[in-house]
Amino acid sequence: MFEKFRKKSPWILHYNAGSCNGCDIEILASLAPKYDLERFGIINTGNPKQSDILLVTGPVTLKSRERLVELYSQMPEPKVVVAIGVCTCTGGVFRKMYNVKAGVDRYVPVDVYVPGCASSPDQIIDGVVQALAILEEKSKDIEKPKRLFGELTNNSIFTNRREMAKKIKHEKN
Amino acid sequence: MSWFLALFAPVFGTLVSGIDRVVRARMQRRLGPPLMQPFYDMFKLLDKRPMMVHKLHIVLGVMHFMALWASIALFMFGGHLLYIIFTHLLSVIFLILAGYSVRSPYSHLGANRELLALFAYEPILILMAVGFYLTCGSFEVSVITSNSPAIVSMPLMFIALLILLPLKLKKSPFDAPEAHQELCGGVEIEYSGFFYEVIYVSKMTEIIFVYALVFLFAGQNILLGIILVTGSFFLVNAVDNATGRIRIDHLVKKVYATAFVLALLALGWISYV
Ligand code: SF4
């Protein structure tokens, strides 16, 4: 009944899971007067219990992962997760470092991946608007992180084409 | 008429809050959310999965709203001004208790600050009621609103109320009790979904309470009342945009150094001038 109001007032929670702050600055820039995300009704609440969109930046460092999962599980459904920046999507420049895990989708289910290092405010706004369309379709069920539960294996994330060709045998048509 | 005003006070408050957000955005030269944005927020909150900390927390939140609504209703029916102020005090105390009833440190800190803010503004509200008694000869709102404008005989009291406005509306420079960037809302932090809706609505109702106090200064002159309310509305938004948050101890000191002194001077003015 109230589904159509979901995308009219999405409240944002922004969490920095060990990013270099490049993407955080861009998020704040897109909330600031020039790009003005508030015209979509978006507020940066900073409170997981009252927010609908989780904006994550940074590859998940070992220190921040519990907090990430904690924050995610404190948000009431329906909710969407937007991974901002290439290091959040795949690990980016930090991939295979000893203190980080490659990408947040290992821990929380990610709905929209916004690439770029750092991703520009335009891209972030586009990602958030796409997330709104997903938010409208979501049910109130509890989701599982795909990678943690084996639906999305480590084999389906690649850093380059050659690695991908090695791991996935393409069907010849 | 008073039934209508009392019953729909939360709706009017929400509308005022929508205008408030647009005005604030336009002052920062941006587009701002649509006018009906607070209503959208409310409908969205109804749609969330219910999560609660414990029952007492929710009950205290609901009681906060009911007491606040009761104080508005008393006001609209022309009740006793002191009763109105004390019912409002009761509602704030419910909220503070709700803040203390959960184990979140943010919530406790918010409740502490809310208590300090209460300590700062409550004496001034009571002095204001006394001022109304001295000028109009009664504490009844119905008598005050049928007298000549009280702002003529106690302008200093009106300035004291203007200083309190940002504090009651949780706007800067006096938004330390809520402090969205450091406390994430303070006492309201543990409410979510439908239960946050109650707190959200009562924040909207609070706006009506505050502007009703401003309206009281115009007495029977309704046009003057509308001018006072719109003027103070724009003033509060301008101040909100132009200033930053001050610390909670500075808040208490500044309110006592300015508004309390002004209120006492206003009482002296009425008695001796
Ligand atoms: S994607 Fe680039 S700019 Fe953004 S947080 Fe990662 S390293 Fe920093």
- Structural class of chain A, by secondary structure, is alpha/beta
How many structurally independent domains of chain B? 1
Oligomerization status of the protein chains:
heterodimer
Query: Any idea what the shape of chain A is?
Result: globular
**What structural category arises from helix and sheet content of chain B?**
mainly alpha
**How many strands appear in the DSSP assignment of chain A?**
7
- The assigned CATH architecture of chain A is 3-Layer(aba) Sandwich
**Fraction of helical residues of chain B:** over 70%
- What characterizes the major β-sheet of chain A? 5 strands, parallel
Q: Which segments of chain A are poorly predicted (pLDDT under 50) over 5 or more consecutive residues?
A: none
Largest interface pair: A-B, 26 and 31 residues
β-sheet strand percentage of chain A: 5-15%
Range of strand content of chain B: under 5%
Shape of chain B: globular
Strand order in space, largest sheet of chain A: 2-1-3-5-7
How would you explain this protein's 3D organization?
The complex is a heterodimer of chains A (173) and B (273). Chain A has 173 residues and is of the alpha/beta class. Chain A has helices spanning 22-31, 65-74, 86-89, 121-137, 161-167; strands at residues 11-16, 43-44, 53-57, 60-61, 80-84, 100-101, 112-114. Chain A is globular and about 45 Å long. In chain A, strand 1, helix 1 (22-31) and strand 2 (43-44) form a beta-alpha-beta unit. The model of chain A has no long low-confidence stretch (mean pLDDT 78). Chain A is built from five helices and seven strands. The longest helix of chain A has 17 residues, at 121-137. In chain A, the strands form two sheets. Chain A has a five-stranded parallel β-sheet with strand order 2-1-3-5-7. A two-stranded antiparallel sheet of chain A has the order 4-6. In chain A, helix 1 (22-31) crosses helix 4. Chain A has a single domain, classed as 3-Layer(aba) Sandwich (Rossmann fold), CATH 3.40.50. Chain B is 73% helix and 0% strand. Chain B has helices at 2-7, 9-27, 37-46, 55-76, 81-101, 105-136, 141-144, 155-168, 193-216, 222-242, 248-272. Chain B has one domain (50-272). The longest helix of chain B has 32 residues, at 105-136. The radius of gyration of chain B is 18 Å and the shape is globular. Chain B starts with a helix and ends with a helix. With 273 residues, chain B is mainly α. In chain B, helix 4 (55-76) packs parallel to helix 9, helix 6 runs antiparallel to helix 8 (155-168) and helix 6 packs parallel to helix 11. Chains A and B meet through loops of A and helix 3 of B. The complex binds iron/sulfur cluster. Iron/sulfur cluster binds next to helix 1 and helix 3 of chain A.
